[in-house]
Amino acid sequence: AARRYAPSVLFIDEIDAIARARTGRDTDLAQDSEQILTALFAEMDGFSTNSSKPVIVLGATNYGVNPGDRLQLDAAMLRRFDRRILIDLPAEKDRRTFLAREIRQKRGQLFQISDAAIDSISERSTGMSLAQLASVVDLALRNSLRTSGQFIDDAMLEEAFETFISGDKKQWDAETILRTARHEAGHALLSWLAGEKPSYVTIVSRGDHGGYMQHASTEDKMGYTRRELLTRIRTALGGRAAELVCYGSEEGVTTGASGDLKTATGLAQRMLCTYGMVPDFGLAVVEDSSQPIGKTIRAQVNQILQSELENAVSILTAHRPLLDRL
Predict the structure, then answer these.
(1) Which residues partner with 9 through β-bridges?
(2) Distance in Å from the first CA to the final CA of the chain
(3) pTM of the predicted model, to two decimals?
(4) Which residues are marked as active site?
(5) 185: nearest Cα among 248, 267, 240
């Protein structure tokens, strides 16, 4: 059909529906899919073509097109395309432009959203697609219709964003909320004292967290120094440190720091095994941390974590009035 209208462009959306790697499995579904794909190959190769009336074939997919990708397209199909174009997720400025357009142009007077709210969500939505951001705006609209039915303000858009990424609010007793506040204040204060203003802090419990602090956007940052990574580790341990300062060495050790410890451990391991940032450990990249090198890695990681936890406790103790105020 495309040849009859040539020169023409044939666009096949979600091409992976027929172009996943052929397995040769003897099932009706597999055979049907592979027959369709083989027929497409025959048409693309053709036997008689007119160079003055070409058919340009475009395919779109969310599957990977590089070796080692978890979701694979058929290798024979990939060979038939001259070029592969990666459409990356939107950058912060693109997310800001999209949100402003969605809110101010498409929704009219229903939204009364400040530029500060748009900036905040744009910065905090790293890794989200435009379709997901549109869903956040639509969720805010639906929530408004269920409640006030008037207009959507900053708080309602914020609530929609948090609900979309983490789920509905959970209610806890006053003591749990206070402990969470101290924990998150520890993260935020250490980050701020290190020269980085957090992009967001909350003590509203959702999903599997009681609250969280989000670092400022680093989308445009190409790399980190050793000092910056140690600061990140210290900040990650800031919740545990704040609880130790406020509740002591026994009551201050809780399960609430499990995610923070995982983050800090991962950073310390990469400093050792990937980035060559620990002189005593050396420059060699270590991909297999099995015995006996595993014991050395664990000891070095624990040494980094313990040192930065002690630093965090010392800093927060020196700034205790500011911690309490926050």
Answers:
(1) 56
(2) 67
(3) 0.79
(4) 184
(5) 240
